[in-house]
Specification:
- This protein is an all-alpha fold.
- The chain folds into two domains: about 5-65, Helix Hairpins, CATH 1.10.287; about 85-155, no CATH class.
- About 45% of the residues lie in helices and about 0% in strands.
- The protein has helices at about 5, 15-30, 40-50, 55-65, 85-95, 115-120, 125-130, 140-150.
- The N and C termini lie far apart (about 40 Å).
């Protein structure tokens, strides 16, 4: 049985809103009615059935087998567990650069990366995150990072235009 957190491409300590957002994005991508893979969609639905319910998620977490990293000299008790990323995500994003700066994402393609690292590597991803619902809590930090990357004298992007009129 695959790790359900890995199926949804989220960190095991991810908040329920992050898990829901990851499920919705992946479901849109893999839904058979939109040309996706039916087997992958079944895996996503199974993972969502468990991780989307707080009681089932707690039971799953209690029985979940942690990957064994015996013999690892850098492992310390109580240290945060390493971020689990799928092989596809790892090949797309590569290993995170050193020196984190800012909030560290615990979901998606750049799980384990700080916003500062993403700003240096993929500004388009930051702009998408700014516009998406899952990035609402990070907007102030993302705006500051994008302002640093903007050319002097260039007008600020109009990200907020899509949200006007919504309540």
């Amino acid at each position: 049985m695959p790790d359900l957190y890995e199926v949804l491409q989220v960190h095991p300590r991810a908040e329920p809103d992050v898990i829901r957002a990851a499920y919705r994005i992946l479901a849109r991508k893999y839904h058979p009615d939109h040309g996706g893979d039916a087997r992958r969609m079944m895996e996503l639905n199974d993972a969502w059935d468990v991780l989307g319910d707080s009681g089932r998620r707690a039971a799953y977490d209690a029985t979940r087998v942690q990957p064994a990293t015996a013999g690892s000299p850098t492992e310390t008790p109580g240290a945060p567990e390493p971020t689990a990323r799928s092989a596809a995500a790892e090949s797309q994003a590569g290993p995170p650069p050193g020196h984190p700066s800012g909030t560290v994402l615990d979901f998606g393609r750049y799980a384990g990366w700080s916003l500062g690292e993403i700003a240096r590597q993929d500004t388009d991803c930051l702009e998408w995150l700014y516009r998406s619902t899952v990035g609402r809590r990070l907007r102030v930090e993302i705006e500051a990072l994008l302002a640093q990357r903007r050319r002097p004298g260039a007008p600020p992007p109009s990200f907020g235009q899509a949200w006007r009129g919504h309540r």
